[in-house]
Every structure is written in C-alpha cells, then in structure tokens.
Automatic annotation (TrEMBL):
Classification lineage: Eukaryota, Metazoa, Spiralia, Lophotrochozoa, Mollusca
Bias-annotated ranges (Low complexity): 783-793
Protein name: VWFA domain-containing protein
VWFA domain span: 996-1173
Biased composition (Acidic residues): 16-57
Start and end residues of each stretch annotated as Disordered: 1-81, 781-841, 1210-1239
UniProt cross-references to Gene3D superfamilies, sorted A to Z: von Willebrand factor, type A domain
Polar residues bias (residue ranges): 1210-1225
CDD domains in alphabetical order: vWFA
Highest taxon in the source lineage: Eukaryota
Length: 1239
C-alpha cells in the first residue's frame, strides 16, 4: 500500500530542526498566552450571559440553578463534527497534523487525485526546482567573457543531487503505480468514485443501450456496484432516457439486500428512447442526504451544453454537490465536451472510457492531474541533467565530485527499488524432466494421439449413402435401411454418412473428453506459472539468451534482472550448454563460448547480470551474429539449438533485413529464434508512451514475424499477465476442438432421442423421411470418337495442297520464310476485311499427333494422324467462386480496391450466376388446344424474375448455401475494411495515398470550437499515416492569411514529425477563409503530387472563381486535390468541395459526426447476418466510404435473395407432397409474383 499510495511519515532532517526550534521558542509564550486567553474567554462569557439575561423573554423563569432553561434537542442529522485543528496548542496541532497525514494515507482509496496529491505532490515532498536550488551554495561570481556580465555560481554536493534525483524517480514510480491502480477493475471504466453518499444517474437511451451494447454495459455496472458502491454509506440509483426511472424514492443505506436489489435493477434495464439529461438533473439535485452525484452518459444529450451548465450553476449555488461525469464508450466529441463542462461548473471530476482508443482514458481529471505531476518531476530531472553539463539557466553550476567517482561505479539498479533478496545468491532448482513445446506435447497428448477424434470413434459404424442401377429390374435402387435404424451425420469432408449410434460408447467418449480438457487446462496453468509466464518454455538443450538493455529500458533494469534470476533458478539447470548476450548499441557476452550450467557458472552469470547497465539503442543483429557465428563453438562442434530474444521493442534494423538474415543463418542448422516481448508502461503528460520506433501492436507484429521465420515461438507478457503465447494458443485450439466434438455428440444423441420418441408416440408407425442424399453431379458425355485413319478423300486433298505449296516455295529464295510472310499478310489487312463471324465461330480444335507409315501406300503421303485430345465441353452453368481477400489492408482508394475485390470480380454476382443462356423461361400458344402452354420442365426448377426476364433457377440448395457462406465471408472482410477506414486519422482525413503531399488546414474563426480536436487529429495524421508511409510533406495554415510550416517538402522523419506537431499545436482560430490563396501557395511547390485540403465551410471568394482559378493552375500539372469536409453541415459548401475533388480527379471525404459507423460494423460482425435489413447502414458522403457502403448493401441484398431462392425449393417440396388429385396445370412460381391456377 505504501508503494502505491505514497511514502510513510518520514521527515527530512531540515524539517526536524525547524520543529525543535519552534518548540523551544514557543513553549513558554504559549503557556502565558493560554492563561490570558482563558481569562479573556471567561470575561466574554460573563458579558454574554448579561446580554442574554437582559434580552431574554423568559421573565417568569429567571436563569438560576433552581429554575433552568428547558433543554431543546439539537439537530445532529448529517452534521459535521468540529475540526480537530481548532485546538490552539502548537504541539497538539502538530500531532493532529501527523495523524491526519496517516489517516489520509490509509484512506487513499477513497480520495480523488486532487485530495491524494495534497500529501504526495512534488511541492509537498519538497522536490521542486526551488527546493533543489536551496540546497546549493552560492559561490563567487565569474564574469562572462562574451558579454562582460557577472554570472552566478552555485555549488552542489554530489550526494545531495543524487539523493534528490533518486527521490524524484521514486516519486515518478509512485505516480505510475497510482495510474495503474486507477486503470484496474471498474475504475478503468467509471473512474474512482469519491463521497460516501452517492447518487448514480445512468443513461439507458437507445443510442447507449442499443446496437449490442446493453450486455457489456450491464456487466460493467454490476462490477461497479460490487467493487465501489458496496463500500459506500448510502446510494441512490436512477436511470433515464426520455423519462426518468428511480429505483428508490430516497437514498438507501448500503447493505447486502440493497446491493442485490441494485444488481437486479441493472439487469432489468432496457433502452428507453432519447437522452433527457436536463430532466434527470432536475430530479437528482433535489434528492436529500446526497453529497456527490455520478452521471454515466453514453450518448449525446437532448439539450445543449450551455443550457445544462447554466442550470447546474444556478441550482448548485450553496449546495456544494460535485458532479462526477463519466463518458462511457462514446466517440462523439460533443458528449465529452458537455460532461467536462458540467464537472468544471460543479467543481467535480470527469472520466472518459472508450473501448477502441486507450489514449482517451488519460484525458480524465484524476489521471491528467497525476500526469502533470509526472511532467513536473521530469522537468526537474532534466534540469539536473543540465546541471551536470555545467549550466542551469544563466547560472554556472558545479557539482563537487568528492564521491562522484564512487557513485559512478555503482550499477544503475542501485538507484531503483529492488525486491527483497535481490542481491542474494541463486536458489537453483533442477527440473525433473525435459520441457517440450506445445506442438511436441500435443503429438503425444492431442485428441488424435489419444484416439479421441470424433470421426475416429464413429468410423467403424459409419456407412455411405448408396444408389446404384440394377440392370435386371432396370431401376435405380437407393439404400433405405438408414431411414429406420440410422442417423445421418455430416462428415469432415462434407459428405453425409449413415451412423449406427451406440449410446454407451458416446457416454464413455464424453467422459474421456472431459478428462482430456482438464489435462489441457492443467497444462495451461503450468505454462503460466513461474519463469514460464515470462519466457515461455525453454525446450532446447543448448540455449543462448539475448537481453535487450537499450536506454529505453533503464527504468526496468531491476525487472529484467529479476526475470533472468527466475529463469536461471528454474529452467537452465538441466541444459547442456548456455550463454547470455546483452546488447544495446554494442553486444557484450557473458562467456566467449557456451558453458555448462553448473551451479558455479550460474552464480557467476547472476553476478554478471547484476553489473549490467542500460545504454544505447537496440542493435539486435550484432548480438544475433555473436550467437550464430561463434568460431570457437564451431571448432569444438558446440552448436546452439535455441536463441531466446528478450526485448521490449523493435530492433534498430528493419524487419525485412532482420528476417532475411535470420532465415539465411538458421536454415539447415536446426536453430530456432524465440522472441519474448515484455510490455512496459511509461507515462508522460500526453499519456502512454509507445515503444521505441513503433507502437506496441507493430512491435509485437515485428517480433512475431522474426520468430516465425525460423519456426520459433512468440511470447508476449506484461505485469498483468500473458497477452499472447504460441504454446498456449496450440492448447486452446485443442480445447476448442474438443468442445466442438462434444457439441456434435450432443446433437447426435438428441437426434436419436427425437427419432425414437416420435416412433413410439403414435399407434401406427409412420414412415420417417430421411435427410436428402448428398448432392451428386452427372458426368457429361464425351463427344463421339473420330476415326484414327483419315478418309481417302481427305488424304488426296492434302496431297494436292502440298504439291501446290512445293511449287510456290521452289520459286522463293531459301532464306525466305513462308510463315513470316503469312503473318505479315494477315497483319496488313484492316479489321473490316476480316471475317465478321470469326469471333462467334467455334474455336474448338482436336489435338492430333502425326506419324509415318511403315508400309508404302499407293495413295497419300505415307503419313497418318491420331486424335489425342478432344475439346472440353464448356459448362453452361456457372460455379460459385471461392474468393480470397488478403487480411493486410492495402493503402489504396476504395475504387482501386474494388477493382480487385468487388463482388463482380470475385464472381459472386448473383444475377450473373442465375442468368445463364439455358435458364430462360419460354411460353407459347398451342393453336389446337387454344391454350397458353409453358415450357416442358417448368415444374422441375423454380422460376425467378431477373431484371424483368423469367429465368429457371438451376442453382441447387446446397450451391445456394455455399454461395451464402462465401458472401458472408466477403461481407466480413468488407466490414473490416470499413472499420479500418474509420479508425485512427483516416476517420477525419481519409486515406493518404501519395508520397509528396501538401496538407492545407483551415484555421478560420469558425473552427474555434473544434480547434483542440483538430490539433489532436492532425498529430495523429502525421504519425499514423505520413510517418508510416515515408512520405514527404508540408503543412499550410490558412485563415485571413496563409503560413507555411517549411519552404519545401520535408521527409517524414521523427525530428520533422515532432517539429510539425509542435508547429500545429500553436494554431489559433481567427479570421476569414482564404481558400484560393492557400491553393496558390500550395501550387508554388513544383515537387508536390497531391493536395489535401481540410475546411469547414465555403471560401470567402466566389466558389466558381476558385474552381476556375484551380483549373487554370492545374492544366499541365494534373495534381489531384483531395477535399475534406470537417464538421460542416452546409450542403452548399460540401457540394463545392465535392465538385473541386471531382474536377481535379481527387477524392472527397467528409468526417461524419451524427452517427457511429463503428457500432454498425461491430454489431454485424458479432451478431452475424441473419437479418439482412437491420441495422441499416448509414449513407456516407465521402467517396471511399460511399463506394464501400454501396458494395456492402449489394452483398446484403444478394444474401437476402439467395435465402429467398432457397425457400422456393421448400415450397416446391411442400407442393409436390399434396395429393395427386389436387394437382392441375401449374404455372411457374416466380419471386414477387403470386401463383395462379388454370381453371
């Protein structure tokens, strides 16, 4: 608790000296003053009694001991006790202040950050820059040789500076732990609740409790009640939508029954219309016995922010009830602004939670205050670094190096908090068996190895469906025994088997599956214990450990050392050889070659680990080369089998270079690289710090690819537990397979029970129809075989042609080529001179082989030919395509992306699939019968209406089902693409496709309310797209005037990106909108290939003039202008931006704020596509989103049509089961057309 919530009540020596001085000086005067005060108080009491006697209305009952004044019971309900610090004695006051500090530390869980920082801030702990300067000694002034002015000279003791820096690092660690504590449990979602009597107001509007959000919202509220509200004195619960719904009329004291009622109330919640927050505030602010109100909002309120803030300000005057506002998983910035304003007006707190963007959590009041303290402490540490360089501002600084050399010899871990017994020798445990990877373990204990595969169990009693033609009776005979005694079951290859079900065998199989799953769970528990939780399993006999000691891990050096200690104690003792290599900018080895893991060598390795220090970058390849290219080990024929990389970030080298070298050096040698990613948490004033060079997601992807390219394993963990592990993933896959088999067994048993229950339920046994046989395809007849010997007429004609050709060629020179001339002659002919029917004539040719005849014939040329291959008969029916869309998102426009992956390109256009030439429905009039007669086979296939033409549906039900599966697969990929387009900076700016771009940003006066949001989104654009794309870019701000960031395009390096973000953070909204001047400034750069312009309205000048000027400037250069509408609802302005993008071959994008398309995609991905109409996809206006949305709607339409077509077959089956007497002339059944019978 002390490590999380603060230090103990230790005081510095300076504070103790000051206290002793105050005690000596004030001991006697305080006693005299106390006596004087007692006399004065007594006199004042006498005067008060006289005045009260003279003014008393009780004349008949004078105030005497015999006749006292009647006692009146005082009102003590919710009364505050007198403050103990009103005691005037100095020593008692100090004791009470110490007691108050101790109580505050004990009650840290009930305090918000503002209250907690009163005793843990940098100022309270005297760790500010002023406190550091006070420790220095002013020396002699030295003149500045450049200016001639005197410079101040301050001297510091090295011990004081190091101690001060150590305390600052401890304070930062304490703040970090406080932040981690605030991000645990329900505090991550709802923040840390303050107050003892809480009123909770919950938003259950349709926007917050709909779209599949209600279940997760209820679970979060139940967690809040169990963890925080159950610890309070009294609570009051109320939900609101269009109307309010309180659980109790008054606040109730918390007990077990009240907590259970609250949970039941939460589980009964249902969506309730709009979001009438004003009505809820009017009710809850009138509730008695409440000292704090918590508002949980997940949608935009019906009232504006100004109305709500004015009401809270006017009604809250004199009450002092703070509002704790919580934005629950809402991406609309208006909700966040409203709740933040309400908390500021009522002097409360604000908390924001989003499931997709973790950075939003750090904008809450509690965490942001602690981040500011971290920034203050970090600034002081930076000043200390400047002091070591000899300057601090304009003053010269010198640190006395009396013990500096001794301190420099100490390792970096000396100044970091260490666990107990960190420096003690190792306690080595020799493993009793050689560990194996999960892949090798499953080969012995997997379902197939234990003969628990369901198909292995059912195979002896499984029989295929049979249908054969019997020549004697001239009929096709089908197997029918399965209808009475068997159950049909779909096999793993898609076929249908008839199964004899042995109930006792399946019961025993279920028991075996249960015990096997328990074994797998124990394996997972074993993999998540001890050092295996950090490193995974060390399975090879000769291992090398690569340790990342870059400068970014300096604060986690003790964590790295402790992890290595566990590894050496638990997993290395039974290996044959081992070695360790630490790397930063340079690599350092424990031993020149691998050594045996004897106790002495392991203890020596632990001493070597304790002396390690962090520094430099992450030069991975230098360490890896030492591990795989050790000449001494090659001489002694000692080869490493496994290399374990323990790192927190990506290497200095690119991923392609690392993976290529790993593949070349490990292929054929049996070496595997296993990567372990330890996820560390760092914080600054802006929130979480990502790993070096990349965020944690890209870091994990890089290390995962490095491990898998050498057939190694990837392991990812953090302080809270394992995030990803290949070993655990293989075990969970087997568990899922076992659960799937168990469900199939349950369905099989239910089928048997249903079959026999239906049989014995009726007196007369009815024939039970079995499932339809699996689909069969008829083989098409081959074309008739031609004669192998050409006829005589054909041989004679061939001989005559050859003789004429020989005469012609005899007159040509030997160097001429007949084939070349024939090709040239054909090429010189115009297209109009060719045969117009050549395209529709059959191009099928027989493949023949010629040979010479042994016997000399009287006629012919002595050659023969044999037909080797007949042309394939082209099927008229079109097969359902098997599409494949890569999971990696291509950085292209939606138009280009759909050219490759649209439904038409993937051969999933349903209209084309059912529109073959032999599917057309024909009807005609028979004159002799005087009737309108349909085609002969109309009653075999259902008829449908395809674009106004009646077609016969020849796709069978199983083909339609396969088509629906493929469309659902493609539809999921479309939705993931939609989520990608709406994530990150692409939500506002769209996708940046070009590598030489200029970004125009509108900073006119109308952008004032969106300026903070614009700065954040612009910073996200620079890092998320420009930096990753490796583009060259420039920024131009325009309002009343225009301003460039740089004079030319600059590459998106880290330095330039930081500079661009810093420049954009100084934007202020003012002035007009000079769009034309900004475009002219952008076109002045000759290197640009595209322009991206963000604005929220029309330009100041005429829109037609802007379009004309742009077209004139862009005549020769053809530069696309991509326009971005930012929070603009003016249709005229949006039409102007759309037209400009269209005329310049650019793209138009609009940032949508009135709906959340992410929720739409998430709902469809989680709930499936059973309902093809709801939820409705909102209409997008941007080009990329609009095209993709149109394709999604088309896919959903085809899905609905396919299901409707399948239902036609069911109607056909039900129609065929009717008695024959009721059958008449049947007209084709058409979708959307009612059936009619012929009278």
């Amino acid at each position: 608790m002390e490590a999380i919530f603060g230090r103990g009540s230790r005081k510095s020596s300076l504070l103790e000296e000051n206290e002793n001085e105050i005690d000596d000086e004030t001991e006697n005067p305080v006693r005299e003053d106390a006596e004087d005060e007692d006399l004065e108080v007594a006199d004042d009491d006498d005067d008060d009694e006289d005045d009260s006697d003279s003014d008393s209305s009780f004349d008949d009952h004078p105030r005497t001991w015999e006749n006292p004044i009647p006692w009146e019971q005082p009102v003590v309900k919710n009364a505050k006790p007198p403050h103990p610090l009103t005691v005037t004695h100095v020593n008692q006051t100090r004791d009470l202040m110490k007691l108050q500090s101790a109580e505050a530390m004990m009650n840290a869980e009930l305090q918000n950050s503002e209250e907690w920082l009163k005793l843990h801030s940098v100022e309270y702990m005297k760790l500010t820059l002023k406190d550091l300067v006070d420790r220095g000694k002013i020396g002699n002034m030295k003149p500045d040789h450049r200016t001639g002015k005197a410079l101040q000279h301050i001297q510091f003791e090295a011990y004081d500076v190091n101690e001060f820096e150590y305390k600052l690092n401890m304070a930062i660690e304490m703040y970090t732990k406080r932040i981690k504590w605030l991000l645990q449990g329900s505090k991550r979602i709802f923040g840390n609740i303050r107050g003892k009597r809480i009123a909770v107001v919950v938003d259950i509007s349709d926007a917050n409790a709909g779209f599949g959000r209600l279940t997760a919202f209820q679970e979060s509220l139940v967690h809040l009640i169990d963890e925080q509200l159950a610890q309070r004195q009294s609570i009051y619960l109320m939900s609101f939508g269009t109307d309010i719904d309180p659980l109790w009329p008054v606040a109730r004291d918390v007990n077990c029954r009240i907590v259970e009622e609250a949970k039941e109330w939460v589980m009964r919640m249902k969506p309730s219309g709009g979001c009438n927050l004003l009505k809820a505030l009017k009710h809850v602010l009138k509730v008695q016995d409440v000292d704090s109100v918590m508002i949980i909002l997940g949608s935009v309120p019906d009232q504006t922010s100004e109305i709500l803030c004015d009401y809270v300000h006017q009604l809250g005057i004199g009450q002092g009830i703070p509002l704790q506002t919580v934005a629950y998983d809402c991406s609309n910035h208006l909700t966040n602004l409203t709740l933040r304003s309400l908390s500021e007006v009522s002097h409360g707190s604000y908390h924001c939670y989003t499931a997709n963007c973790e950075d939003q959590i750090y904008t809450g009041t509690d965490i942001s205050l602690i981040l500011k303290e971290i920034q203050k402490a970090q600034e002081v540490i930076n000043k200390i670094k400047e002091m070591r360089d000899g300057m601090m501002g304009s003053a010269l600084v010198s640190i006395m190096n009396e013990i500096t050399t001794e301190v420099a010899k100490l390792p970096q871990s000396r100044f970091l908090p260490r666990p107990p017994g960190h420096d003690l020798p190792l306690k080595i445990e020799v493993p009793k068996f050689q560990a194996r990877s999960s892949i090798e373990w499953i080969k012995q204990h997997g379902l197939k190895a234990r003969r628990l595969d369901l198909y292995q169990i059912l195979a002896p009693n499984a029989y295929s469906y049979k249908e054969e033609f019997i020549p004697v009776i001239k009929k096709a005979v089908q197997s029918q025994v399965h209808e009475a005694t068997m159950v049909q079951f779909q096999w793993h290859d898609g076929s249908v088997k008839n199964i004899h079900v042995d109930m006792s065998l399946l019961f025993e199989y279920q028991k075996q599956l249960y015990s096997t799953v328990r074994l797998y769970e124990k394996r997972i528990e074993w993999l998540a214990s001890g050092s295996r939780r950090i490193f995974g399993t060390i399975v090879e006999k000769n291992v090398v450990i690569l340790i990342d000691l870059s400068i970014s891990n300096v604060n986690y050096l003790v964590h790295i050392q402790h992890s290595l200690r566990l590894l050496m104690e638990q997993q290395l003792a039974n290996k044959e050889y081992f070695n360790m290599i630490a790397f930063g900018s340079e690599a350092v080895t424990f031993k020149p070659t691998m050594v045996k893991p004897t106790p002495a060598n392991l203890q020596e390795a632990w001493s070597w680990v304790l002396d390690l220090q962090c520094g430099g970058s992450r030069n991975f390849l230098s360490a890896f080369k030492l591990a795989v290219e050790n000449e001494e080990e090659i001489k002694h024929k000692i080869f490493s089998d496994g290399i374990y990389l323990f790192s927190s970030g990506v290497p200095d080298q690119t991923q392609d270079i690392c993976c290529s070298y790993i593949e070349q050096s490990t292929s054929g040698r049996g070496i595997h690289l296993h990567s372990i990613l330890f996820n560390v948490d760092d914080y600054d004033a802006e929130g979480a710090i990502p790993g070096r060079y990349a965020n944690i997601t890209r870091t994990a992807e890089c290390l995962r690819n490095m491990a898998h390219c050498s057939k190694g394993r990837f392991h990812w963990f953090r302080e809270t537990g394992i995030i990803e592990s290949d070993d655990i993933q293989h075990i969970t896959t087997e568990i899922d397979k076992a659960m799937n088999f168990s469900k199939k067994v349950q369905l099989l048993v239910e089928s048997v029970k249903k079959k026999y229950r239906n049989r014995y339920q009726h007196d007369i046994m009815e024939e039970m129809a079995a499932l339809p046989a699996p689909p069969r395809f008829r083989r098409k007849a081959l074309p008739p075989t031609a004669s192998t010997t050409p006829p005589a007429t054909y041989r004679q004609q061939r001989t005559e042609v050859k003789e004429e050709r020989a005469k012609i060629l005899s007159k040509r020179p030997t160097s001429a080529s007949y084939l070349r001339d024939s090709q040239i002659a054909g090429r010189d002919r115009p297209n109009s001179a060719r045969d117009p029917m050549s395209r529709v004539k059959s191009s099928k040719r027989f493949a023949t082989t010629s040979f010479f005849l042994d016997t000399k014939q009287k006629m012919g040329d002595g050659t023969g030919s044999v037909i080797k291959k007949y042309p394939d008969q082209k099927s008229v029916r079109k097969a359902v395509g098997q599409p494949h869309i890569p999971d990696v998102e291509d950085i292209v426009s939606t138009k280009e992306w759909l050219r490759l992956y649209s439904l038409s390109k993937l051969k999933l256009d349903l209209d084309k699939l059912v529109s073959g030439p032999d599917c057309k429905h024909n009807e005609g009039t028979v004159k002799t019968l005087h009737k309108h007669v349909s085609a002969k086979y109309c009653d075999i296939f259902p008829s449908i209406n395809v674009k106004g033409t009646i077609k016969h549906l020849q796709l069978l039900p199983h083909e339609l089902k396969e088509y629906e599966a493929q469309v659902e697969k493609v539809l999921k990929r479309y939705l993931k693409r939609l989520q990608w387009l709406l994530s990150g900076s692409r939500r506002v700016f769209g996708t940046i496709l070009h590598k030489k771009v200029v970004i125009l940003v509108d900073t006119s006066g109308s952008m004032e309310q969106y300026m903070n949001e614009l700065k954040k989104e612009l910073a996200a654009l620079i890092w998320d797209q420009l930096y990753r794309l490796g583009a060259r870019f420039n920024l131009i701000r325009f309002s009343g005037d225009c301003e460039k960031w740089k004079q030319r395009l600059e590459p998106a390096t880290q330095e330039n990106c930081h500079s661009a973000v810093s420049w954009s953070s100084r934007f202020t909204a003012s002035g007009n909108t000079c769009t034309l001047d900004a475009l002219r400034m952008a076109f002045d750069d000759p290197d640009i290939t595209a322009v991206y312009m963000l604005t929220d309205g029309k330009p100041d000048t005429s829109t037609s003039m802007v379009l004309k000027e742009v077209s004139e400037m862009n005549v020769d250069r053809k530069i696309p202008i991509n326009t971005i509408s930012f929070n603009c609802s003016d249709s005229t302005a949006n039409n102007f931006l759309h037209l400009m993008a269209q005329e310049t071959s650019g793209r138009y994008h609009r940032c949508q704020t009135d709906f959340d398309a992410q929720l739409f995609a998430h709902k469809l991905l989680t709930e499936g596509f059973e309902d093809t109409e709801y939820p409705h996809l909102p209409e997008f206006e941007g080009d990329d989103l609009r095209r993709l949305g149109s394709e999604i709607n088309t896919a959903r339409k085809y899905l609905a049509q396919s299901r409707q077509y399948r239902s036609l077959y069911q109607s056909k089956v039900s129609q065929s089961e009717k008695p024959a007497s009721n059958k008449g002339n049947v007209t084709p059944f058409v979708v959307g057309k009612p059936k009619t019978t012929v009278q």
